[in-house]
Amino acid sequence: MKRRTFIRNSGFATAGTMLIPHFLKAYEQRPEPSQADKVLVVIQLSGGNDGLNTVVPYRNDIYYRERPVLGIERAKVLALNDEIGLNPALEPLRRLYDDGRVRILNNVGYPNPDRSHFRAMDIWQTASDADEYLSTGWLGRYLDAACSGCASSPHQLLEIDDTLSLALKGQRSNGLATLNPEQLYKQTQNGNLARLAKVPSAAEDDHSPVGYLYKTLAETTSSAKYLYEKGKMQRSTATYPTHELGKRLKTIAELIISGIDTHVYYVSIAGFDTHVGQRAQQDRLLKQYAEAVEVFMNDLKANGQLDRTLVLTFSEFGRRVKQNASNGTDHGTANNVFLLGGPPRASVVYNEAPDLTNLEGGDLRYSLDFRDVYASLLRDWLRVDDERILSKGFKGLKGLLS
Amino acid sequence: MKETADYSKLLHLYRRAGLGSLPPREVPLRKAVASLFQISESFTPIEVISAAEVARQRQETRQTMMAGADPKATVKDRLKENQELTRDLNVAWINQMATSQEALRERMALFWHGHFACRIQQQPYLVQNYLHTLRRHALGHFGDLLMAVSKEPAMLQFLNNQQNRKNSPNENFAREVMELFTLGRGHYTEKDIQEAARAFTGWRYSPEGTFVFQERLHDPGSKTFLGRTGTFRGEDIIQILLEEKQTARYLTEKLYRSFVNEVPHPARIDALAEGFYRSGYDIGKLMRTIFEADWFYDESNRASLIKSPVELLVGMQRTLSTTVTDKQSLLYVQKVLGQVLLYPPNVAGWPGGYNWIDSSSLLFRMQLPFMLAGTLESKVQSKNDGDVNTQALNRRGRSLKATIDWDRWAQTFQKVPPKELPTVVASRLLAVLPAAGVLTDITQKAGAYTDRTAQIRYLTLAFMSLPEYQVG
Lengths: 402, 472
Fold this sequence. Notes:
heterodimer; A: alpha/beta; Alkaline Phosphatase, subunit A; nine-stranded mixed sheet; three-stranded antiparallel sheet; 13% strand; B: mainly alpha; two-stranded antiparallel ribbon; two-stranded antiparallel sheet; 22 helices; globular; DUF1501 (chain A); DUF1800 (chain B)
């Protein structure tokens, strides 16, 4: 046992609030977020969404030849230009497109793509190379960088889920995961936890593991209180779909409208690993995605928050061009990425459609590195030095946001 | 009364080397160290699937297919069965860790599993053999371990050596054997990787799951590797890697950071590495030197490591002499806390340390004792990783509740006067005592129980749910 710590802490217990560490008070002095404070919402489609049946190359004969059963009938595709169009399940997204709030990026990937779910997901979440293993996520490092020297709070990166994704883990700071801020608040206000969160050993000694744990606990409690108290100011009046993604986006909308100072929200929906009987499964999920996102965007718009909110949608990989023997598709490589929201401007298909004549072992070749998408988001939207976060100096994508 | 200084050292040793079991009383430290090694000399294999069963499976699949069964359904059944077998292996190992006498061996095997991280699906027999190798050589010679793991079909599969052939090399295994298993980054060139990959061509495994060297796929030409030239084969590359002192240095630092302190101490590590190298990479000897060193018991090295989820889960069971019986629940806890045995995130293993901790994992860890005692059901949902083939991992368990013999546990405090009970229970469970206010508070609450066993039960659960219990 640590006699030293023991004595010091006992002194602390009598010293009272005078010594409450600054991060416990931090939220009380939080400035109100203004219209200039940008918000990023990340929607992760887990399992590898089939990009070719999401944004369909409906004029491409190879597509129909390789997907005799899975191919989406030309007449049903919601055309965006004379090459590609949306899966009809994405009708709501089409309306957003017409409202000038959609940017579609094709062929997003990275060199030597990995086809395993967990590995590919880690690569996307950490922004690493295919043969590099990082233990911090790109958004976690964003929080590190955005707040070096100041007191960051976990809720500034908020995942609407029970457990925290690697993307939101940083070197010094971590995001916060909660499905329900009210429940988290109640949990942290429960007698024992509330008392422990006030044990101030962290203030002196957050370099020891125990100090770090107490600091984490104190920050969690502080963030939970802030989210609960400030976040309940605004209840959304919009009608969201009752499925999981609908509920989670509703939670996010209420927090944004309430003026919570969260910079990044993270949410994922699973089920895209469609090796067998893909059509019904994927269409159902895409429909859920599009209808939830439409209500979300309209809700934010009605409340004057859409201009400062951008939604990024990605999946860990796309799928094989050729359908498999089970009317599904197997793991592939490059994929499309959606950016929704932000100030109104013309919707765009940012780059060329997939080239089905130039495949690599039956898979699409990437032409945009996903880390260039991140670089643009970090630099031009979240306004931080992206090189500190992505280390390698990705140039970003010209004209995407700037 | 607090625990004596000597007993507190024993507790420290057992937290680090004994998976959280409680040391015997009044044993001199040196004797305790010796005994930890001695009882780990034996080895208990884990088998959930036999070679005969694998053969029968293959035969059966063939017959069902020939009889005209739906091939997709057959494959699907097999898939499910294999997932469950891998899960059973995971659980069998957790149980072994929670109950076996050979605590140090299992603790070392856990370290090697993170070091030689390997994750393959659908082939539980290969996973079983890989695990067997880790556990068998856990305290032996690193050279034997490295060679055996490198030839494990699971590893050859995971690092794509099945695709590594003459004229079309796959460098994955050659790269990781240097970057992660032996030298560490910065001690070899890309050219070394290319040359080593050529030497490993022809290292494959048979459909029955045994290592084979296929000469016709091997590149017999001359290779230059780390300054030596010859018509090297895989075995030669591994031998050369062992001749490099950097290998001893790299491994020793990693062991030091896992067993002593996350902050490396270069002078100590250099000295240890020198001995490790000279002993011909005797792992047991190195660990013994560490556990016998005075500095191992320094205040600065106490309470300095955050327990991994598996150490936490196993430690609670060992301390309270109980086991969790529900398989899915064991998987569930590992998943929520981010360490599923046999499913490491990638070949680099779990990053560990502070990385285990975030708001959600900490709150869950603090609830775990109450789940084990059956007074709390977790509502936390583990993350769906999107992989349709790992559904067996995602299913919820029924209950984490374990049968705990509280009377027996209470008896171990028999001689402790009532007034000293809280401090004594705390000292036994925690590497560092909580702040006085916390201790007072818990003591007061425990005072509400008139029954001594109930009181000890309350104290135990309260201390196990503290942040202090997360470190060892």
